[in-house]
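2024-03-11 09:14:02 INFO worker-7 job=invfold-0412 stage=load source=structure_tokens
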């Protein structure tokens, strides 16, 4: 499993509420939802590290 790096993320309050609701709807933690969203965006743009090898 790849190492995970912690960092601070500043997000607009309304955006955070929407992400928290989406996470709850998908039975994920908020952190897990943000990670999933980032992975999906990387895959769609062809920039995901696993797809570039």
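2024-03-11 09:14:09 INFO worker-7 stage=emit residues=53
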């Amino acid at each position: 499993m790849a190492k995970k790096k912690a960092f601070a993320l500043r997000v607009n309050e309304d955006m955070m509420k929407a992400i928290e609701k989406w996470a709850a709807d998908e039975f994920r933690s908020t952190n897990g939802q943000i990670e999933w969203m980032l992975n999906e965006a990387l895959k769609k743009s062809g920039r995901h590290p696993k797809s570039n090898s």
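2024-03-11 09:14:09 INFO worker-7 stage=report msg="The radius of gyration is 13 Å."
2024-03-11 09:14:10 INFO worker-7 job finished
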